[in-house]
Backbone:
């Protein structure tokens, strides 16, 4: 099953832009398709693969950069 996700990341730090760029680069290095834009990042791929990438990326973000808010919208299917 394919999954489409719209993800917004709000690092609770003054240097939030570099943290967001680093997170997007990490997502782009994964096995899912990533399409960033000015307001959010869209992620497409197989359900379990997308969920694993999101879980790993959020854990990495919390461990490396501390507190952050993530907002995600999930829809079944390929919504490219």
Residues:
């Amino acid at each position: 099953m394919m999954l489409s996700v719209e993800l917004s990341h709000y690092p609770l730090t003054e240097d939030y832009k570099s943290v967001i760029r680093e997170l997007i680069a990490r997502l782009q290095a994964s096995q899912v398709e990533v399409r960033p834009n000015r307001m959010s990042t869209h992620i497409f791929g197989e359900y379990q693969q997308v969920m694993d990438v999101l879980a790993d990326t959020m854990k990495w973000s919390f461990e490396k950069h501390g507190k952050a808010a993530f907002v995600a919208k999930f829809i079944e299917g390929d919504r490219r």
Summary: The domain at 2-76 is CATH 3.30.70.930 (Alpha-Beta Plaits). The radius of gyration is 12 Å.
